[in-house]
Write a structure and sequence with these properties.
It comes from Actinoplanes nipponensis. With 877 residues, this protein is an alpha/beta fold. Helix content is 35%, strand content 20%. Mean pLDDT is 90; it is low at 651-656.
């Protein structure tokens, strides 16, 4: 029994132990699950806080990014809005009163918006203010409600801005102010003197409204005529001035209107804007209409339709004295008559778009109705004659025409050759100068101060004659009968139209000499054949006799079918055509029918002489010039050319063994030609290859000898002997010795030594003789022998004798032969004196002038030519 109980106990114990064991295992598993759960919880917590931190960071970054983008966009928007505001309300339309001045609009500028105050806003970096703009001219009527005084200030401001941004006379004001009888806008009263303002009394509103309604009907019927929706559209389409002024009617009344007037007012509100009639109303109600801009005014602030909910901080009203001053000035300008068109008005919207293949056409001013007046040049009319007394504005007209053409035709389409025979520097502005490096790209040549140098006029005509020949040959090759055909056949060729302008051309033709004869012949040829080859002549003169000189040549003058007469010009138009006698100052009669009655166009000319206006255009064109377009050749008759560096023996001294060349050329001066080439004397191994410089002008004689010597030294090995027999020439001669690589000096007492030194060794030897006429009779034979035999041994005399008789004397007296002098340069020697040295009986037609010399080389010249001795040493003291 006991054992049974014991066994039972053991079993129970056993089971209990197992149960305990199981319970422990369950407990351990639960604990590890709990631990695991807790670890997970911890992990999740940590992940959560990391997420939170990351989210916060991402949110911050996104926020900063959004903020930055907002700021950038706000900045861009601000700038856009600011530039839009500046665009739509530029100048007097938007400037604060403190800086306000009127701004004259361009020819086709449309009215923009007008500032009444400012709007504040914060783009993120502090408050900024933009102009608050409202529409008026061509856009809207304005209706103001609210505070009276503030509204009157806004009205005064709008009126001043509208007047200050339009041309005088383009805006007419009518003010109905029954309570103050005009007192509210009294500062505008000076406009009344010019008929631009009328105050309407208390009983006058009815007729005014009736009149405006009539006005609108008339504009619709006769001006817009169903073709245009508004005056603004018409102005834009015709690119001309406004055909009708704007009319602004200011109504300052609180009382209601009788039914008839109310109906008229409503009609005007509906239809006025298109016809330039604008209402500016304070007090009276205006029926709602898209063209009515409403402004609710409070003291200092306002809200208005076009600005929405934003509050406008109103500008203070313009000061009354400024309004009155402006109105007085406007009235005065109107009293003086309309100003001429502006030079800038002649400029096209886009530069260099035109082709000159079929001709040239450009405006030179405007006609009395304000539209631009275009002047053609091409196959018909081919050439122009401009006339008018001194001071009538010929040069100004030429500037206007050149500027207008140059803005339209690029240098491949148009080339100018310009010559001015009057004193002054009128065409110098087209060439680079010390103060302005720009030039007019189309100008190939400009001659100024040429009144003394008719030879340059002739040189230009000869050059054009060659161009004419070249074009005629090309035309023949391509079987083209005019420039347009040649250009079509040879599209790669360079065939710009050429316009040659000669101001005061009568100077060229004055003097019944060979030069004038050749000039007329060349002019005649150019006038006759230039038409089809695209070469056009524009001749201007103040002198009736000049034009009459042409009249004798009917073949010539008949080609000049375009006539432009300035006030009081005579003989430019047909005898029965008296228009030039009656046109006012700064006007011209343009007549493309040889001056015939009935073909007149009256043109108001702009002021094109203004340097600043000109420079603005020239700079623009200059910056656009193609790389191939170099500066023009400028010939200035008052400037002395310097010996070019290329003709000086600078740098390495030529080697003794270097090639000498068979006939080195001595450079004596600048030729008066288009290319500014040097005049050269070839000194070959032939009899007579000596040079005589003749005259008493020491400086110029020394310069001629120095230029010759230096240019010879620059060409190869040579020896120089300077024989100086006049103390006055010692200084320049000594400077020359210093610059020559190999030179010996001989004074008056060294002549024995000099002649003893002469030995032919094949190297050219140049004897530069100063004042050789002072040598004395005892040396006659030696000099004569040297002149006779020297050249064949390469010993050449380049001598200065102070007169022809003295030269002759030095060579053997009155009967002496001068054939050893193969070339001469004459300074202040009269033509007849040169007859012994000249092939022309009686000597050449030559009247000495300062810094000019006559050069004759028997071996190349038929006639002597005029040259300008180079300045070699600027110090002639
Ligand atoms: N349309 C114009 N508007 C304003 N000023 C002008 C106009 N035309 C000419 N002028 C001015 O009148 C003056 C004389 O003009 P310009 O030199 O062109 O006359 P001109 O006939 O060439 O005289 P001259 O033959 O004596 O040289 C200049 O001061 C010029 O600026």
């Amino acid at each position: 029994m006991g054992s049974h109980r014991n066994a039972l106990v053991a079993v129970v114990r056993q089971e209990l132990a197992e149960a305990r064991g199981t319970a422990r295992a369950v407990l351990a598993a639960a604990e590890s699950a709990r631990n695991e759960a807790q670890r997970r919880k911890q992990l999740i917590r940590e992940a959560y806080s990391t997420c939170l931190a990351q989210l916060a960071e991402a949110r911050e970054t996104a926020r900063a990014d959004i903020l930055r983008r907002t700021r950038t966009e706000a900045g861009t928007l601000t700038r856009n809005v600011e530039s839009l505001a500046a665009l739509y309300a530029s100048g007097a339309a938007g400037t604060a009163w403190r800086y306000w001045t009127p701004t004259e609009p361009g020819r086709v500028t449309r009215p923009g918006l007008l500032r009444i105050g400012t709007i504040g806003y914060d783009p993120g970096d502090g408050e900024r203010r933009l102009p608050a703009l409202v529409p008026l001219l061509d856009h809207a009527h304005v209706h103001l409600a609210g505070d009276r005084a503030a509204a009157d200030g806004v009205i005064a401001g709008l009126l001043l801005r509208a007047l200050g941004t339009t041309r005088p006379g383009d805006v007419r004001l009518t003010v109905y102010d029954p309570e103050q009888l005009g007192g509210t806008l009294a500062a505008f009263a000076p406009l009344g003197h010019a008929g631009l303002l009328s105050f309407v009394g208390p009983g006058g509103l009815g007729p005014v409204l009736d009149d405006l309604v009539e006005q609108i009907c008339r504009v619709n019927e006769t001006v817009l005529a169903g073709e245009y929706a508004s005056l603004a559209e018409l102005t834009e389409a015709t690119a001309g001035p406004r055909r009708e002024p704007w009319r602004i009617i200011v109504l300052l009344a609180d009382a209601d209107l009788p039914a008839g007037q109310r109906a008229q007012l409503d009609r005007i509100a509906r239809t006025g804007v298109a016809c330039g009639v604008h209402l500016l109303v304070r007090g009276l109600d205006l029926a709602p209409h898209p063209t009515v801009e409403r402004i609710e005014v409070h003291p200092g602030t306002a809200t208005c339709d076009s600005i929405g909910d934003l509050t406008v901080r109103l500008d203070a009203p313009p000061p009354a004295d400024r309004i009155a001053g402006f109105c007085r000035a406007t009235a005065e300008r109107l009293r003086q008559g309309p100003p001429p068109a502006r030079f800038a008005d002649l400029e096209p919207e886009k530069l260099w778009l035109e082709s000159s293949a079929h001709g040239l056409s450009a405006p030179i001013g405007d006609s009395p109705d304000g539209s631009l007046s275009w002047v053609p040049l091409g196959d018909d009319p081919p050439h122009a004659l401009i006339g008018g007394p001194s001071g009538s504005g010929k040069t100004n007209l030429i500037y206007a025409w050149i500027g207008s053409l140059a803005a339209r035709y690029d240098p491949g389409e148009l080339a100018f050759y310009l010559l001015d025979f009057k004193e002054g520097v009128s065409f110098a502005r087209f060439a680079p100068g010390p103060r302005d490096p720009s030039w007019l790209p189309q100008v190939r040549l400009a001659g100024i101060n040429v009144n003394g140098d008719r030879e340059f006029g002739l040189a230009m005509l000869r050059h054009l004659g060659e161009e004419l020949r070249a074009r005629a040959q090309a035309a023949k090759r391509y079987e083209a009968s005019k420039l347009a055909e040649l250009r079509a056949e040879d599209p790669a060729g360079h065939w710009p139209r050429i316009v040659a302008v000669i101001d005061e051309f009568q100077v060229l033709l004055a003097g019944r000499d060979a030069l004038a004869d050749e000039a007329v012949t060349l002019l005649e040829d150019l006038a006759r054949r230039g038409r089809s080859q695209g070469i056009h002549l524009v001749l201007a003169s103040q002198d009736v006799s000049g034009i009459e000189a042409l009249w004798g040549r009917s073949g010539l003058v008949g080609q000049f079918t375009l006539r432009i007469a300035l006030p009081k010009a005579r003989r430019i138009l047909a005898d029965t055509n008296l228009a030039a006698a009656v046109i006012p100052r700064f006007h011209a009669v343009v007549n493309a029918d040889s001056g015939a009655d009935g073909a007149n166009h009256i043109v108001r000319l702009p002021d094109a002489s203004d340097r600043q206006a000109w420079r603005t255009l020239q700079r623009k064109l200059w910056h656009r010039r193609p790389d191939t377009c170099g500066p023009p050749r400028l010939f200035d008759g008052d400037a002395v050319p310097r010996l070019p560096q290329a003709y000086r023996p600078s740098g390495r001294v030529p080697q003794a063994g270097a090639d000498i060349g068979s006939s080195p050329g001595a450079v004596l001066g600048e030729r008066i030609d288009v290319a500014a080439r040097p005049a050269r004397l070839r000194l070959g191994r032939m009899p007579g290859r000596n040079l005589a410089v003749l005259g008493t002008r020491t400086d110029e004689a020394c310069d001629v000898l120095a230029a010759a010597a230096l240019s010879l030294a620059a060409q190869g090995p040579a020896r120089f002997s300077l024989v100086c027999l006049d103390p006055g020439a010692e200084r320049p001669a000594a400077r020359l010795v210093a610059e020559l690589p190999d030179a010996d000096w001989y004074g008056p007492h060294d002549l024995d030594q000099f002649f003893a030194s002469l030995a032919a060794d094949g190297i050219p030897h140049y004897v530069l003789g100063y004042a050789l006429d002072a040598a004395g009779a005892s040396w006659r034979d030696r000099w004569r022998a040297l002149l006779t035999d020297g050249p064949e041994q390469r010993i050449h005399v380049l001598g200065w004798w102070r007169s022809v008789p003295r030269l002759r004397d030095a060579l053997g007296g009155p009967g002496a032969r001068l054939d050893t002098i193969g070339a001469w340069v004459a300074l202040d020697v009269q033509g007849p004196e040169l007859s012994p040295l000249s092939p022309q009986p009686g000597g050449p037609a030559w009247y000495p002038r300062a810094r000019r010399a006559l050069f004759f080389d028997r071996s190349v010249h038929r006639h002597p030519e005029v040259i300008i001795p180079y300045e070699v040493n600027s110090d002639h003291s």
